[in-house]
Amino acid sequence: MTQNTPTIYQRLEKLEGELQKLTNTVYALKVTDIQNYDKNFEELSVSAALRAERIACQMRNLVCPALSPNQAAYLPKVADAQGMRIAEQQGILTITLPGLLPKRRVHTNTAFLHEPLNYMLREYVKQNALPLYRDCVICFSQIYDRELPQRRIRDYDNLEFKQILDTLCTYVLTDDSGFFCDSYYTTQLGLKDCTLVSVMEKADFPKWLQNQKNHHESMSENLLTSQAEIRHR
Q1: CATH number of the domain at 67-229, out of 3.20.20.80, 3.40.50.2300, 3.30.1330.70, 3.40.50.980?
Q2: What Pfam families would the database entry show (predicted)?
Q3: Which among 45, 136, 166, 204 counts the fewest CB atoms within 10 Å?
Q4: What percentage of the chain reaches a pLDDT higher than 70?
């Protein structure tokens, strides 16, 4: 028995307890009448999501040290399991993130998202000749599952965009100040929940916006406005 085995065993026991609590919360969601008790359903959903995020981060902290010199092989698998993607076409960089971004005031560990994103961006810029965006627009598209109630749609002001922006700035932006960068937010209905982050030079934004109008059913008033109404950071 190695010196670390008791510690790892204790952490696994703690994880087992967290998993049981998550299972109980999911069962509570299944039996909750969402029509009459939508507030309870929302609170249970948030509780389950936060617990799942904590479990993912705790499990990752156990797995990565066990991988020893092969730690770098794990984060690509995490990104792939989450459905995280990075693509560039005609000067527009598009990042697909799993699920919807958490609320800013919710105290949760978002490392489950930012660690693989940081890794993917770092590797992407190594393998692709991508100039730094200097005079750009960053578009955050919140995609909501069209089969679920539309009352789930939230205000942009309450969502955690800053950490994503900080990660982007490290690899693909000259600077994320308002002098160099505008932010644009839109909401769309789709096949499943996810977040799309599109980075482009300002000259490319009108064409991108027109493509959104042509190809997506939008629930955002921002999507129907002109470029002059882009909100400066």
Answers
A1: 3.30.1330.70
A2: DUF6100
A3: 166
A4: 78
